[in-house]
Write a structure and sequence with these properties.
Largest sheet: 7 strands, antiparallel
Shape: elongated
Keywords: Autocatalytic cleavage, Decarboxylase, Lyase, Polyamine biosynthesis, Pyruvate, S-adenosyl-L-methionine, Schiff base, Spermidine biosynthesis, Zymogen
CATH superfamily of the largest domain: S-adenosylmethionine decarboxylase
CATH architecture of the largest domain: 4-Layer Sandwich
EC number: 4.1.1.50
Mean pLDDT: 78
Organism: Pectinatus brassicae
GO molecular function: adenosylmethionine decarboxylase activity
Cofactor: pyruvate
Strand content: 25-35%
Strand order of the largest sheet: 2-3-4-5-1-6-7
């Protein structure tokens, strides 16, 4: 299948606050990250909004572009990545971004753009990756709810709260 470009929409949740609090530091880290994976940035544009909880970094690349919306109060980053060069692997870009931003959870939606031969062109592929520590926490909560007598324990807790 011959395609013109690949587009990725990446949602990064529970990012390390120190990694996303400063737009200038994040843009420098992104430029270093892009250089390590052989993507050439042509310029960088940072737009900070009045509420200080949201900023946008736009980086036009020789091979496409990358846009990053950072919501510092939510510890959330939305990345839009458009790559026009067939030799660049989106997976290497994602791994480099994960190293730079350190999110606990990532949701990726992947589109092949310009595949004129099939209807499947516009059907996105979505992947979710969760950091190991977050996975353990999520599993622990599920196990507690499955334990026999968990309803009994909840009733006891409610009685103790009323008695205090």
């Amino acid at each position: 299948m011959k395609i013109l470009a690949r587009q990725l929409a990446i949602d990064m949740y529970s990012c390390k606050t120190e990694k996303i609090i400063n737009a200038d530091l994040l843009s420098l880290a992104l430029q270093d990250t892009l250089a390590t994976i052989n993507l050439t940035s042509l310029d960088i544009k940072i737009t900070k909004f009045a509420d200080d909880n949201h900023f946008v970094i736009f980086i036009p690349l020789q091979q496409g572009h990358i846009t990053i919306h950072a919501y510092t109060a939510l510890r959330y980053i939305a990345v839009d990545l458009f790559i026009c060069e067939p030799n660049n692997s989106p997976e290497s870009i994602i791994q480099a971004l994960r190293k730079a931003i350190k999110p606990e959870k990532i949701k990726m939606t992947y589109l092949c753009r310009g595949d004129f031969g099939t209807i499947a062109d516009m059907k996105p592929h979505t992947k979710v990756r969760i950091a190991p520590l977050r996975r353990i926490q999520n599993t622990g909560v599920k196990v507690i709810h499955l334990l026999p007598g968990s309803k009994f324990v909840k009733k006891l807790r409610r009685k103790n709260k009323k008695g205090l």
